[in-house]
Amino acid sequence: MRGILHVDMDAFYASVEQLDDPALRGKPVVVGSPSRRGVVCAASYEVRPFGVRSAMPMGEALRRAPQAIVVPPRMHRYAEISGQVFAIFHRFTPLVEGLSLDEAFLDVTGSRGLFGEPRAIAQQIKDAVRTELGLTCSAGVASCKFAAKIASDLQKPDGLVVVPEGIAEFLAELPIERMWGIGPKSSVRIRAAGYATIGDLARAQPSRLEALLGSWGRTIHALANGHDERDVIPDHDAKSVGGEVTFEHDVYTLEELEKPLLAQAQRVAERLVQTGTWGRTVTLKLKYGDFQSRTRQTQLEEPVCDTDSIYRAAHAQLARMPGLRRGVRLVGVTVSALSERSDDAPLLFPDPRIARGKRLEDVAAKLRERFGERMVTRAALLDEPSEQPEERPAGERGDEHDD
């Protein structure tokens, strides 16, 4: 029988902040933009009894818990700790499939001879994370990915749940909201159709679920019955790297968007340099005051990883964006079509600005490592408003979920 683990760090971003700043330990900590129009990236367990969760609007979070301490995100630090966490995972198996900075599937089927049964391996991982990093994680152990992921969430924080061989029986009494892929909107529709538990879905006719949910219905039926043959796929590559910021007040002019756009380009460039990747596609995203979103993208002749190149490409798309006069509440930049620079054939006439930009990013990265990430920035951003970005390492073991 396969041994699949799902290991999930507990309130990862918030726990890292409490680890680095002892004054925050035991306090209600919210990681995110201090702007009331921002979004909660992570919430410590001390603030959760007030109903604060990740992805919640910051304004709502502060209404529920006005005593909460808001800390801006530090993606470099979270990525650094994540690397240490994943290094622990790789001690036990090479089959590690990262889902985000703070969670992964591990196939430990072939690791039994060295480390014991899957439950023992999960406990060893938990002990190593606690002893070496000062953090806690929760683990689910099962013979398939779906059941392992559900199990890891059942006894948070610092939990360890082993799913027995009868997966369907284990799942049967759980509410449908535990089902992977069922969100708040779809759960209302499913409950209205008479399904309240995963067991109800398992007993339903697949054709009826298909009529209710489309082609996804048969997948839901199979998962509810414990049928999940998906393999753990190691070394998922990032598909994109991005970031976005929500403004305290809507902005209405091109000039007001230029500095926030530059700030996002700089943050994306930092992430690309840190991971040694380059990208050919730059996407600009605007969300308007009415919450409608528009994106525009451009394909570059050669891959880039520097602030100026990303900014030039994104700025060129602003002229193609309609409706600035109706107000913009969010701007985002994403770089995709990622690769290692060596993977691309050299151009006959490469743009020298890209090479100069890369050298500048390398120097800036070394200075940030020595003096702190907030100590090095562009002069044009020194008078940037104090609102903080909603950091979003899109596709790169993505955002922290509500754990």
Strand order of the largest sheet: 5-6-1-7-8
Task: Tell me the series of helices and strands, N- to C-terminal.
Answer: EHEEHEHEEHHEHEHHHHHEHEEHEHE
CATH topology of the largest domain: Alpha-Beta Plaits
Shape: globular
Q: Total strand count, please?
A: 13
Which structural class best describes the helix and strand composition? Answer: alpha+beta
Q: Can you identify the CATH class of the largest domain? A: Alpha Beta
Largest sheet: 5 strands, mixed
Rg value: 23 Å
Mean pLDDT: 85
Alpha-carbon distance between the two ends:
28 Å
Give a structural overview:
The structure is a single chain. This protein is an alpha+beta fold and 403 residues long. It folds into three domains: 1-163, Alpha-Beta Plaits; 168-224, DNA polymerase, domain 1 (Orthogonal Bundle), CATH 1.10.150; 240-392, DNA polymerase, Y-family, little finger domain (Dna Ligase, domain 1). Helix content is 38%, strand content 21%. The chain contains 14 helices and 13 strands. The chain has helices spanning 12-20, 58-64, 75-92, 112-115, 118-133, 145-152, 167-172, 184-192, 198-203, 206-213, 216-224, 254-275, 307-318, 352-371; strands at residues 4-9, 29-32, 40-43, 69-71, 96-100, 103-107, 137-142, 160-162, 240-251, 278-288, 293-304, 328-339, 390-392. It has a five-stranded mixed beta sheet with strand order 5-6-1-7-8. Strands 11-10-12-9-13 form a five-stranded antiparallel beta sheet. The protein has a three-stranded mixed beta sheet with strand order 3-2-4, with helices on one face. β5 (96-100) and β6 form a beta hairpin. α3 runs antiparallel to α5. The two termini are 28 Å apart. The relative contact order is 0.14. Residues 385-402 have low confidence and may be disordered.
